[in-house]
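With this grant's support, we have settled on a layout for protein records. One resulting record is reproduced below.
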Amino acid sequence: MKKTVNSIGRHLFLAFLVVFWLTPIAWLVLTSFSGYPGVNISHFVPKSFSLDNYRLLLWNADTVAQFPRWFLNTLIIAICSCTISSFYVLMVSYAMSCMRFKMRKPLMNIAVILNLFPGILAMIAVYFILKSFNMTNSHIGLILVYSGGAGLGYLIAKGFFDTIPVSLREAAKLEGASEQKIFTKIVLPISKPIIVYTVISSFLAPWMDFILAKIILNSGISKDWTVAIGLYNMLDKSLINNYFSRFCAGGVLVSIPISILFIIMQRFYVEGITGGSVKG
């Protein structure tokens, strides 16, 4: 009897958490189909439904809402940052896991310590460095910031590489293979789970980031903004009554690509996390 009561209590608590978590998302999706353009908190379910918010957002861009341009900017930044960051992470992880050199352990410890500090502490310094090189209000500058410190996040990928049998690399070395060939021809082909995990993680950071983008892209030119900055601008008190439903529609559209990517790659993503957690 006691076990049954505990089980019911746990399930009720989990059901409460699910409802608590899904309610804001459901409200955002419903509001995106609302026939009313502004904020309407008197009804959870809109009285009228319309596709106008999506139509206006995608095909009727104005000086306030330039969603297709923002989406393209964010996609380019995310793809470039993801490509550079993934290479950095995988190469550093391989070096730390499979190669032995002086200062290897101190460098690993330094990287771990640096990761303990919030990235926001360095934002002002990063901004002035970019400004001195005239790279503020530049997508290239934003890409450099996102990908510059990516190598510090090597721990999970290193844990995965630690599980690869040493005998494979030793056999390749006996055949005269260089470290580059071992990395590209032997290690990477059998590391698909951690590659997928690294790519998705590297893509998510610039795709969802607001703070760094807001600091660096501060010229006020809306066509250069990312999606996060553009949608945030719609919440201005002078605009929210006319653009809030479009803001919700933008939030739904932004979540679609990454949701599809995650669903397709979910199996590899989970394998990458669990494989990388076996060893440190």
Q: What stands out?
A: The domain at 49-276 is CATH 1.10.3720.10 (MetI-like fold). The mean pLDDT is 83. The longest helix spans residues 240-276.
